[in-house]
Structure formats: C-alpha cells, structure tokens
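My convention is simple: the sequence line spells out the residues, with the fold written below as integer tokens. I include a record here:
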Amino acid sequence: MNRLINSGFLRYLLLYAIFFTGIYFYFYEYRTQTIYGDDLSVIKEQAECKGLSDIIAVGKPVSKFRPVSGVISAIEIHFFDKTESDYFRFNVAVQAFIALMFTAVTNLLLKSFLLSALMGIIIGLSRFAYYNITQIMCGGPLEGLAMFLFLAAIYNIVAYLIYFDNERTKSQYYYLAWALIYANLAMYTHERYMVLFPLIIFISFFHPLKNKLSGKQKMFISFLAIGSLFANFAIKKYVYHYHFFVGTGTSPIATDFNLKRQLGFLGDALASFVQFNSGEEYQIGVNYHHITDVHYALVMTTIACIALVLGWYMISNIKTGIVNNPSFKYSVKLNLILLIIFFVVLAPAVSTIAYMQRWLQGPLAVFLLIVCVAFRYTKAKMASKTMLLVLLMVVYQISDRMYIIQLNRNFWMKGSEWVTSCFKDLVSHDFLPKSTNTIYILTEKLNPNTIEGMNWNLWRGYFFEFYQGKSKQIRYLDSMKFTDPVQLKYMIDFDRKTEQVILYTNGLFMYTDDVMRERDKYFAEHGITAKK
C-alpha cells in the first residue's frame, strides 16, 4: 500500500474520478441521444461481422484499417446495444483517461502535479474533443482511444528526451521501445498517428542533451519503426487493396493534395490553437469574426498570455548569458524537437480535402507542452510566473467554452442529429410502426444534397432496422406533382397499410392523410384508379 501511495497511484486515481465527473457534466447537455450517420454505419458493419477477421476489418467501405477500434466497438455494441447513455459514459471515461495521460506527460516537464492537472483540464474539456464525446462509435472507440494511445506514446517520447533531467528508473531504450508499442496501437486505431514512426527514428539519433543509446539500439529501433510502417503498408496494399495514405472518406491524400487549399487549412489550424477559431462555421461552430466583444477580449488576453510566457522565457534567459546557461540551451533544443513533433503531427490534419477540428487534438497537446517547457525554464520567481500560467489556463478555458456553445448550435452534425431524432420520436410513438415498409419524404426544396444528407442520417434506412428490427425503403418527392410519371406511379400503387408520407420542412410531420386527399381528388378529376 505504501508503495502505491508513494508512486502517486492514489492521487492519479482521485484525479481520474474528478476528471470523469467534470467531463461528464461539462458535456452532458451535448450528449448524443440518437444514433445516426457514421455511427450507424459502424453498427451495421459490426452486425454483419461473422468473426474476428470481419471485426478487425471494420472500416473497409472507406478504405480504413482500424482493428483496435473495431474490436473495442464490437465489445461496446455487445454490452450497450441501443442504450445511448452507456455509450456516452464510455466516451467520457476515455476522455478522462486522455486528460489523465496528458497530466502525466506535463508533470514530467512541470514537476508540479497541480499545474499539470490544470493543463489536463484544458485537454479534457477542449472543443476539439467535442466529437470524442458526442459520437458513440467514431468518438470514444476511434478518435478518443487513438488520442489516448498517442499521448501514451508521447509520454514515453518525452521521458526519453528528458531522461537526464529527471530521476528515471528505466533506461532510455525502455522508453523508446514503449513509444513504439503505443505508436503501433495508435496507428491501428487511427491511421493519422503513423507519423509517430518517423519521429521515433529521428529522436533516436538526435537528442537535445545526451543520447545513451548504442549504435545497435538506434539501428534496431529504426528497423522496428520502418518495419511497423511497412507492415501497415503491406496489409493495406496486399490484403485489403487500400491506398496507403487515405484522407477524408476514401480520398487518397497523394492524388487530392492541393497546396493552396492545404496552406489555408494550416492557417486555420494555427489560428485555432491560439483561440482565433477559423474555418467553415458548419465545421467549427463560429468564426472569430462573429464572436462577441467580451469573447474577443478573452481571445486577445489568451494570445497576450501566450506571448508573455514565451517572451519572458526568452528574455529572462538571454539576460543571464547563453554561453553560461546550459539549461536554456537544453530547453531550446527540447522545444525545437517538440516543434518538429507539432508540425509532423499536424500534417495529416491539414493534408486532406477537409478541415475538421477534431483532428487538432494531438497537435494542441504538443503545443501546450512547448508552453510548459517555456514556463519551466523561465528564470523568474515561481509565484510570479505561476500566476501568469494560471491566468493563461483560465482565459483559454473560458474562451474555449464560449466556442463550444456555438459549436453545439451550429455544427452540421447537430442538424443531422436533430432530423434523425425526429424520426426516432415518430418510431417511439408508433407513428412509424414496424409494419411500415416504405417512407416517402416530401419536401419543397429537394436536391441531391438533401437526399445525400438524409440517406447519411438514416444510413439508407438501417436506422429503422436498428431501432425497430426492420429496415425501411426511403423515397423522395419534390412536392406532390401528379403529372410526374414516377410520382404518379408511386401514388397509384400506394398502400396505406405499409406506406407513409412525411413532410420535411422545419420538422417532420405525418402527411399521409393530406396527400391521400389530394390524390383521391386528382384521381377522381382525371379518371385514374388507385390499385389499393
């Protein structure tokens, strides 16, 4: 027991409970209460799996190989079934582990459990983590778990880098080996984290202070890192016939790369890290151009605090003289390596055909580590520089909270969830009974985007199979034009026992009786006889 207490196990256990409770209530109002879209597609894939080989191949329709996420998703579905609240709690648990792991990483640098825990809060409650919480299959078991494994790899990388600045009980080689293990697990949860392997090769040869790895150990680590990448390539290429680099959907990064677009995404991402929320508002909630004056003042205060932390770090050390300041030279080298890690981890997020803030979680964590190094090696009174860092944490978190409120209002997925929840209400109140085979969705502004969006929301009717045990066919009508031969045939063959018409405007409305009255009137005027 004494060993557990001395190792900090109990305080980390208590901190995890605090993180879990805080994250639970922080995101509670944003939780997903209806399963839809990509989550439904994963559940459908899992339902069709006949064994472990199928489970680890979940993601095949979009050319993704994510066996770790596939196995965890299968376990979740087995235990949670249709209970959305259980999925939410699981996602919160994963997010709490992310916050805890980041606390452990920052504690290596800050050597202050309290300040590290405050840093953990920023990661745990980040607006970039919104998707981790709200999406039941693509959140916790995919984005969240991958982020946790990424941070576990980063923990071992940082422990390796600062080996001579801490009382480490294991060898440098030990930490680099574990970094490789976690990097593999992260890559097989989400492909973007394959970028860890070139980084591991790089830091095995270039160390900011002193590298005690032997030549054989460096070569062996490099061999394992290259072998890990080649194994992933071989599995994708020769087993599943995928592209090696695949971005959004099934988009190959190599062929869809556009320098002007990617530089624009890079600018959006860099601005977002310092609270200038940038990008398309349906993806990010609200652009910084449209925030309130109070919020803008918070953003400017955040930037000022970041500038002060970094500026104070530079000025306080330069005053003492660089030649006689080995700790400063060491910290500069350490931050340069962290900066390389930052841009390498950021690269996959800005290299595809879209820009989504959930991909910025990893780079945000590394960015905050750079701030931690600057704080640690600032030559000033501890109380003074701590007050500045705490101020930065507070204004950063308040600004982030204001952004996340707008994100929940404007994010395109919230609109998709709302539409799908309307269908769920119709199902739960038996307005769309199991006996209904076909649904006609009637809207005045029917276009390909409406059809594609609705098909994605309901995953081509699987939504009904999931909640009712029976799928339904969905057809679309652009107002009720009886002169249209296709729509006329629908109305002639219409079976009121197994078919329903739904009006889609600012909500969903059962419209079968209204359409039947119009149909019967039109048919009587034109001498048309309905079959049923």
About this structure: The longest strand covers residues 438-443. The mean pLDDT is 89. The two ends are 77 Å apart (CA to CA).
